[in-house]
Amino acid sequence: MSAREWIGKDFYRELGVSSDASSDEIKKAYRKLARENHPDANPGDAEAERKFKAVSEAYGVLSDPSKRKEYDEARQLFGSGSPGGFGFPGGNSGGTGGFDFGDIFGGGGQAGGLGGLGDMLGNLFGRRGAAGGTAGRAQRGADVETDVRIDFTEAVKGATLPLRLSSPTTCATCSGNGAKPGTTPRVCTACGGAGLVSRSQGAFAFSEPCRDCRGRGTVIDDPCSECAGEGVSTRTRTLTVRIPAGVADGQRIRLAGQGEPGRGGAPAGDLYVRVHVAPHSAFGRSGNDLTITVPVAFQELVLGATITVPTLDSKVSVKVQPGTASGRVLRVRGKGIHKRDGTQGDLLVTLEVAIPARVDGEAKAALERYAEANAGEDPRPEITTMLRERGS
Question: Where, in this chain's numbering, is Zn(2+) 1 bound (predicted)?
């Protein structure tokens, strides 16, 4: 996309946020709009596809702090009410009246005293540190984010999942060069492929984007019909995503180079897959440890017992010592989460006494005899002491 096209767009309006929105607000707005307008959810809806592309493009700029800063500076320079009184193309400047971006980025008129603005905007359009002005046209592709949902066991053990994704990618028809198959972009004769031309004004020399190629360095005489010369098109592709063992709910997995394609030979952005883990009916998690609460009978805590406890894939025997209190946590070594780095967690078993809803017959009589035998034993001596002190 040319400099003129980028500045002329209101990315904040595309996402429906204010210009001082936080990064979290921008991300939340993007994810909501991307879900609503995703091509998979709106098959055959051209307007939804257009909106999906627009919000993806806006998020690619506003989610990158450096790109957003440069974009904001350009908006301040050319937006309505700015010091120079310049307006966006077709808008009212409120000052000098409809300043023509063509004077800077190509199209009629002479640059006059504004030729230096080409250098001022150099960083915004990717010419930072370019050798001879050619390498700077390259622009890294924007990062893309998507979501997957997995069950608890897959999060613990890891999984390999197919991911179907509709997103901007390198145009398959022209292989990303923007030209119709059988043709190639030609080097711009006006700037010699540099993308910049120098102009002299008195004792000063200024550089500005070439008007013929709009700063790209090449000219496409016959654009690709699929991507209209952009080299990028929205396609549905299937990727294989490896979910590592021990992934946490909300964690992002980075797939390098699987985001939006770069321009001018620059590398593609990255794809971030945010993982959502469904809860388990019995197991929980604390770091690398698995947790489970196991009901036990009163006599098992008092007299001691060996109980069988499930794990995610088998079962283990756990010894309960006589006199164990309800709520005690027993640790089963090595039965938690095993990660690639060699770390492994344990299984934490919380014992919880199970109180029967009703006791009859011999069991009731036995409990009554037990209560009589232990009538002089106070199970809460500290509470009793406090009550005595307050009653005196």
Answer: 171, 174, 224, 227
